Amino acid sequence: MLTLRTPAKVNIGLWVERRRSDGYHELRSLFFPVSLFDRLSFEVRERGIELSCDIPHVPSDSKNLVWLAADLYFTYTGVRSGIRVDLKKGIPVGHGLGGGSSDAAATLIGLDRLFNTRLSGDELRSLALELGMDCSFFLDPRPCLVTGRGERIKPLKVPSFDLVIYSPGFGVSTPWAYKQLKRLTNGSKPCKLLFKALRERRYHEASQWLYNSFEEVVYRCYPELERMVEWFNSKGAWVAGLSGSGSALFAVVGPDVEFELPAGTRGRLFRVRTLERWGVV
Ligand code: C5P
Description:
By secondary structure, this protein is an alpha+beta fold. It folds into two domains: 2-155, Ribosomal Protein S5, domain 2 (2-Layer Sandwich), CATH 3.30.230.10; 162-273, GHMP kinase, C-terminal domain (Alpha-Beta Plaits, 2-Layer Sandwich). 29% of the residues lie in helices and 28% in strands. It has helices at 65-77, 99-114, 121-131, 174-180, 188-199, 203-206, 215-221, 223-234; strands at 2-19, 25-45, 49-53, 82-88, 144-147, 152-155, 162-167, 239-242, 249-252, 268-273. Strands 1, 2, 3, 4, 5 and 6 form a six-stranded mixed sheet that branches. A four-stranded antiparallel sheet has the order 8-9-7-10. Helix 1 (65-77) packs parallel to helix 2 (99-114) and helix 2 runs antiparallel to helix 3 (121-131). It is globular and about 55 Å long. The mean pLDDT is 95. The structure holds cytidine-5'-monophosphate. Cytidine-5'-monophosphate (C5P) binds next to strand 2 and helix 4.
């Protein structure tokens, strides 16, 4: 039996720059792993892929990225075995926090360790890419500049900082959000300035370079999310915005500032920290 904890990510800044002929988009974003985790336990079985999850609406068949990752692993390596995976979700589902991709990356790493197949970094990355664009980031989670379709990953040195994540309790579909996009924006200059401000801990200044291409369409459909960003700002958050295509919001905050949801507001707050490095353990 092997158990791994695998983190969520937050996008601070996300520019969708170009539509490609293959239906995907070119983006630019700062990805930060954060201390909010899913837990996966693996147990060798004679055959088949068996998955159980502690949240009822998460599929436990080939619609789940964990199942697909295990299937891909067995096909690629030729290992003749089965696996049982027990998934405990700490990362809200469908929130733009990368939980599914993180679970899939942890599955590739877990099976590689369990069966001692010693896949190279390149092999793991190419398998991860087949599973989803965010997936290869989670093979070695640390602050990164992510470009291309999400497959070009450049590690960045950024001191860790405190965040509050707001989960409104519902998800937003990423393909839907991409389809709604009207405006494409080049982010190379503001993204560089945003990174510089975060690296130098000038968080207040970082907010002026923050941008997320999905905010316009997501806030139009869910105005309560925009109101929550205003609430974070009014409570003294340095930077607040949408993570990925939502629905989660993040706020960069001082270590001692307390946040409690206004009475009658749905959802949950998670107090987390960005991780400078996480060797999926
Ligand atoms: O990579 P992932 O499977 O998470 O992407 C989900 C969907 O988001 C894709 O099927 C595509 O519609 C859209 N997408 C995109 N451009 C990207 C990443 C995702 O259009 N770079």
